[in-house]
Amino acid sequence: xxxxxxxxxxxxxxxxxxxxxxxxxxxxxxxxxxxxxxxxxxxxxxxxxxxxxxxxxxxxxxxxxxxxxxxxxxxxxxxxxxxxxxxxxxxxxxxxxxxxxxxxxxxxxxxxxxxxxxxxxxxxxxxxxxxxxxxxxxxxxxxxxxxxxxxxxxxxxxxxxxxxxxxxxx
Length: 170
Hints:
Blueprint: E1 6-9, H1 11-28, E2 34-40, H2 43-58, E3 62-70, E4 79-81, E5 92-100, H3 104-111, E6 120-128, E7 140-144, E8 153-156, H4 158-161, E9 166-169
Parallel strand pairs: 2-3, 2-5, 5-6, 6-7
Antiparallel strand pairs: 1-9, 3-4, 8-9
Helix pairs in contact: 1-2
Keywords: Glycosyltransferase, Transferase
Domain Phosphoribosyltransferase: 8-146
GO molecular function: uracil phosphoribosyltransferase activity
């Protein structure tokens, strides 16, 4: 891995992209009274909390939030949620993570809801690296980034990392 660290998004850009994603979610789901954001722990959940706050500020929709905790590197699905997944029944859910790389984390997040009848499922990520190993794609994204496999994207979010918001290519 290279020791070179390149800033991809700064704090203000992350804020702007978060607002844009929230508006895209509203536009795409204007007919829904309730939306369910499903944040992949840890940074995906923090990002989902931010989206929830923005959506509540700009709309009168009910925005529910579920936290999914899993081992992202595991070869099998083992996930827990902080709320019962049944609250998503017949609703639109948006799986949220900070970075979409291989698609494994979002695929596992989708797996949690396989036995729940949903209206529809979408995905939202801050950064889409496009190195998909799973058939998972971002419906809403802050930025798409072409990288080589040995490069790594790191996102810091103030609420989780106690550092200023930023996204770095390392």
